[in-house]
Amino acid sequence: MSPAAPAAQVEKGSSFPYLTHGHSGALDQLCRAFEEARPVAILVGERTSSASYLIDCFVDSIGSDVAVVRVTEPCSDAYAGMREVVQAVGIDPQDMSLADLENALTTFLSDQRRDNRRTVICFEETQDKASWVLDTVRRLIELQAKGEFGLMVILSGRPGLNELLIKPSFDVIRALAGPRIVLGPLTSLETREYISREVEAAEVADIGEVFESAAVTLIHEVCSGVIDNIDALCCKCIDLADDEEAGPISVDLVNKADKLLRQSRKTPRSSANAKPKRVNGARLPAGRLIARMNGVVVQEKALNGGNVLIGRDKLCDIPVTSSIVSRQHALVVNLASGVGLVDLGSKNGTFVDGRRIGRHLLQSGDLISIGDCTITYFAGDGRQH
Q1: In the chain, what is the straight-line distance between the N-terminal and C-terminal CA atoms, in Å?
Q2: What's the rounded Cα separation, in Å, for the pair 219 and 216?
Q3: Per-residue exposure over 279-318, b if at least 16 CB sit within 10 Å of its own CB, e if not
Q4: pTM higher than 0.85
Q5: How far is Cα 236 from Cα 132, in angstroms, rounded to an integer?
Q6: How far apart are CA 193 and CA 199, in angstroms?
Q7: In sequence order, what DSSP letters do the residues of 292-306 get, joined into one string?
Q8: Is the Cβ–Cβ distance between 317 and 308 less than 8 Å?
Q9: Highest mean pLDDT among 158-172, 260-274, 333-347
Q10: Angle at CA 11, nearest 5°, toward 10 and 15?
């Protein structure tokens, strides 16, 4: 029985060739969790590529003496997931029961401990794997607690992961994970730097040879700083520029590329100024806020173009009865780029996914914390996709 091979080095010229300031901070948090021997860490990113690249960098930083397992493929249940883990560490799971699989993993972890080696298991895109992943993580944590195997589990996913984690049955996972590690969107300066580095990787000397300055600004606004969307739009712009034999990519060409991408996805980009759509004559909300106290839903608020005031005052749209909540604490606002959250100078702060914010562009699945109240934001009709 041999340990899993360490992950490969990150290649230069990958689709995410450098770490922004925000991503570097997230990498530091992940490394610190490893150094502190936390049994679980939670990583939430706007899109797949940024979180995946960050895990690549983390794996590269911890050295080859750590056995790394990365579960990226969908699994139907905890049994299938445990088979995936066991197979990744070099054990044939054929004809094994769930108990056999857990015993095999325990043996592997015991061997790791004996050799003074640690093990990291990463579940990526966790929000798509449903609650069985968290059940499996609880089992792994129980193994770690009994034997102190030097095991660390990383739960990585998009904002939809937050909805899974708020269930009371997973309190122990949240408590052991510590502060959630959140990868926010790029700032406008980081977007420009990101595109510039992509251009350099393509052996073009200067970003100005490929993109007009205003075009880069528009790409940032259209994509809201989300890296996967920036990649897709830049590639589409370059394809169009090649087809049309155009010079530096202009604002007009960015708008044309964005329109073609939205048509191909068959889902138009949301706009705060757009009227809510109608289906069979029924008006659909632009989004939804679900407020909970102690895990119990106390209010659901549809966003139909207006702002939503949150605070202790009874006249607020979402009133929160708590002495640590300001009378007018925070405001959910409609912006040209989407739906934003603004802290109104509250004494005790407004938090999104565990991070204190002043202003924040909400992404579907974001978990807002105000005092003892948690509010989940869902885009569109309020259903989790």
Answers
A1: 40
A2: 5
A3: eeeeeebbbbbbbbeeeeeeeebbbeeeebbbbbeeebeb
A4: no
A5: 37
A6: 10
A7: EETTEEEEEEEESSS
A8: yes
A9: 333-347
A10: 95
d(CA 214, CA 191): 13
Q: Which two tokens stand for residue 314?
A: 């009874």
Closest CA to 4 of 116, 109, 152, 99: 109
Judged by DSSP in three states, 104 sits in helix
Q: pLDDT at position 176, please?
A: 82
Tokens in use for 237? 């712009």
Give the chain's radius of gyration (CA, Å).
Answer: 23
Sequence-separated (6 or more) residues with CB below 8 Å from residue 114: none
pLDDT digits (tens, 9 = 90+) for 90-104: 888 888 998 898 889
**CA–CA gap between residue 72 and residue 124 (Å, rounded):** 5
Confidence of residue 46 (pLDDT cuts 50, 70, 90): low
**How open is the CA angle 209-14-210, to the nearest 5 degrees?**
10
Pick from 267, 272, 266, 269: which is nearest to 254 by CA?
269
Q: Specify burial of residue 21 (Cβ count, 10 A radius: 0-12, 13-18, 19+).
A: exposed
Q: Which two tokens stand for residue 12?
A: 């230069």
The encoded tokens of residue 23 equal 């991503």
Residue holding tokens 């997230």?
26
For residues 18 and 208, the model is more confident at 208
User: CA nearest 128: which of 72, 50, 190, 184?
Assistant: 72
The answer to whether residues 145 and 112 touch, using CB atoms and an 8 Å cutoff, is: no
**Nearest Cα to 154, choosing from 184, 175, 125?**
125
- The percent of the chain in helix, strand and coil, each rounded to the nearest 5, is 40, 20, 40
Mean pLDDT of all residues in 307-323: 87
| Percent of the chain surpassing pLDDT 90 | 10
3-state SS assignment for residue 214: helix
In DSSP terms, which residues pair with 20 in a beta bridge? none
- 10 Cβ contact partners less than 8 Å away, ≥ 6 residues apart: 53, 56, 57, 60
